Amino acid sequence: MKILTQTELIDELYKIGAIKIEDIILKSGDLSPIYIDLRLVVGHPDLLRSMSKLMWSMVQDLEFDLICGVPLTAIPFAVVMSVDNNIPMVMRRSSPKTYGTKKLIEGKFQAGQKVLVVEDVITSGSSIMETVQSLKSVGLEIEHASIFVDRGQKGFENLENNGVKVRSVLKMSDILARLMDNGIIKSEEKARIQKWLRETESKIDIEPCS
Ligand SMILES: O=C(O)c1cc(=O)[nH]c(=O)n1[C@@H]1O[C@H](COP(=O)(O)O)[C@@H](O)[C@H]1O
C-alpha cells in the first residue's frame, strides 16, 4: 500500500471536500473561513488507512498500553491504529449509560495504564481534554495525543499546559501553503485566513484541569 506524502494527502483531502474554504461555525461558536472535515474520510478506506499509518508513524516511539479515539470522528482512525499495531483500544461514552454496566469508559483496562489519545482536528484542545478527564477519572494515565490536523491556534499550548504532549501530522500552515502552491487560494486569501486564525487565537482558552 502506497503511503501518501504530506502534499499528496492535502491534495486528496481537498479533492474529497474535507478542506473547505468557506465560512463554517466552529465548536467555539466562531465563524471560521476554513474548515477541516475529516468525517468524510470514512467514505475513502484507502485514505483512512494512509492517514492512520501516518498518525502511527508520529507516535510509534512512545510508550502506551491503550488507544482511545475522541468521539466521534477520531474513532475510525483509532480503530485502524489499534488493529494494525495490535494495541488494545478503550472507548469513551459522551455520558455514562443509565442502564446495564453504567460505564463511562468501555473496554478492558487497569488503573495506571497509559493511554494514547487520538483526535482528528484540534482548535482549543477542549474536546481532547474532555476525553482525558474521563480517562483519568477511572485511573488511566495520559501523556500524549496523536492529532491529524492542528489548526495552529491555541490547542497545542493549552494541552501542553494540561500535561498532554501533542504530535500532529499536519499543521494549518502546511495546508495553506499547499493550497496556495496549487493555485486553490491566492496570497491575499491566505493572508486573510492567517489573520483570522491569529486574531481568534487570543480568545481560545480552556479551563485548567486537575
Ligand atoms: O469546531 C472546530 O473547532 C473544528 C474545526 C475544524 O476545522 N474541524 C473540526 O472538525 N472541528 C471540530 O472541533 C473539534 C476540535 O475543537 P477543540 O475542542 O476546540 O479542539 C474537533 O473534534 C471537530 O469536531
Q: What topology does this entry show?
A:
Elements: H1 6-15, E1 19-20, E2 24-25, E3 31-32, E4 35-36, H2 45-59, E5 66-69, H3 75-85, E6 91-92, E7 105-106, E8 114-122, H4 126-137, E9 141-150, H5 155-161, E10 165-171, H6 172-181, H7 187-201
Parallel strand pairs: 5-8, 8-9, 9-10
Antiparallel strand pairs: 1-4, 2-3, 6-7
Helix pairs in contact: 1-6, 2-3
This protein binds orotidine-5'-monophosphate (OMP).
Descriptive report:
The protein is of the alpha/beta class and 210 residues long. The protein has a single domain, classed as 3-Layer(aba) Sandwich (Rossmann fold). 38% of the residues lie in helices and 20% in strands. The chain is built from seven helices and ten strands. It has helices spanning 6-15, 45-59, 75-85, 126-137, 155-161, 172-181, 187-201; strands spanning 19-20, 24-25, 31-32, 35-36, 66-69, 91-92, 105-106, 114-122, 141-150, 165-171. The longest helix is centred in the first third of the chain and has 15 residues, at 45-59. 36% of the residues are buried. The mean pLDDT is 93. Bound molecules: orotidine-5'-monophosphate. Residues 26-28, 35-37, 73, 120-127, 151, 155 line the site of orotidine-5'-monophosphate (OMP). It comes from Tetranychus urticae (Two-spotted spider mite). Keywords: Decarboxylase, Glycosyltransferase, Lyase, Multifunctional enzyme, Pyrimidine biosynthesis, Transferase. Pfam families: Pribosyltran (PF00156). This is Uridine 5'-monophosphate synthase. Residues 45-157 form the Phosphoribosyltransferase domain.
Indicate the mean pLDDT. Answer: 93
Q: Uncertain spans, ≥5 residues at pLDDT below 50?
A: none
Quickly give the structural class: alpha/beta
* Distinct ligands: orotidine-5'-monophosphate
Find the count of extended strands (DSSP E, 2+ residues).
Answer: 10
Q: Share of helix among residues?
A: 25-40%
Whole-number total of structural domains: 1
Order of helices and strands: HEEEEHEHEEEHEHEHH
What is the terminal-to-terminal distance?
43 Å
Shape descriptor reads: globular
CATH-assigned fold name:
Rossmann fold
With strands numbered from the N-terminus, the spatial order across the biggest sheet is 5-8-9-10
Structure annotation, total helices: 7
**Radius of gyration over all CA atoms, rounded:** 17 Å
In CATH's first tier, which class applies?
Alpha Beta
Note the beta-strand portion: 15-25%
